[in-house]
Design brief:
This protein is of the alpha/beta class. It contains eight helices and five strands; from the N terminus they run E-H-E-H-H-E-H-H-E-H-H-E-H. Helix 3 runs parallel beside helix 5 and helix 4 crosses helix 7.
Length: about 230
């Protein structure tokens, strides 16, 4: 199986920018969007230049793709079409938002990135991982996360949280949220296997507990990455 450590991905080690890319991953309902927003505010308050963004989305083109991917009628988008749309949004996002921010030294906090494609379209939908990594090589210009946080919850908790959030906002469930527990079990297994392959980049964070409890765990991981000291920012 191809992996991020394969020789064909060695070019990425030559692409250095003054900024840092921190990505946030997890099942739907894991709380990653909430935690990303909290961390963006905290880092800005400590003098960091922060670009907070999301996938799919982050650009005008990406937002249009997001509406298709998340809200098209169930069964109307094939798995390969879904994957192609995700990478189309990502390519635009990298060119328009992520690379410019990295070049000027921002800390970029991105809600989902290529690991989501591996977990959802790869492990969840059954698309070969080699195909996904091939698209990454072709379209992502060598951009890879410097740090990835996976917020871990069980699929049942994710479904409950997503349902509560959508009802509170009077929003319909997305195409992904309409999937069964078995789908999210496969996605969770995918995230764990990805994390095992890249322990230096990926940190698994317990997503259970209150927002404050989870943020304390997130803060420790981010502080240690940015300063080498888990107590370095606060």
């Amino acid at each position: 199986m191809l992996s991020y450590s394969s020789p064909q991905f060695a070019l990425r080690t030559l692409l250095k920018y003054p900024g840092k890319l921190i990505t946030w991953e997890g099942l739907d309902g894991s709380g990653k969007s909430t935690q990303l927003a909290l961390e963006a505010d905290r880092l800005r308050g400590r003098g960091f230049r922060v670009t907070a963004t999301r996938e799919p989305g982050g650009t005008a083109v990406g937002q249009q793709i997001r509406e298709i991917v998340l809200h098209a009628p169930r069964g109307s988008v094939t798995p390969f079409t879904e994957l192609a749309l995700m990478f189309a949004a990502r390519a635009q996002h990298i060119e328009e938002v992520i690379l410019p921010a990295l070049r000027v030294g921002d800390v970029v906090l991105c809600d989902r990135f290529t690991d989501s494609s591996l977990a959802y379209q790869g492990y969840g939908r059954g698309i070969p991982l080699e195909a996904i990594l091939g698209l990454e090589t072709m379209l992502c210009q060598g951009v890879r996360p410097d740090l990835t946080l996976i917020l871990e919850i069980d699929p049942e908790t994710g479904a409950r949280r997503s349902g509560q959030r959508n009802r509170a906002a009077s929003d319909p469930d997305t195409r992904f949220e309409q999937e069964g527990i078995e789908f999210f079990e496969r996605v969770r297994r995918g995230y764990r296997e990805i994390a095992q392959q890249e322990p230096a980049r990926i940190r698994r964070v317990d997503g259970q507990g209150s927002i404050e409890e989870v943020h304390a765990r997130v803060r420790q991981v981010v502080d240690e990455f940015l300063t080498g000291n888990p107590h370095g920012l606060r």
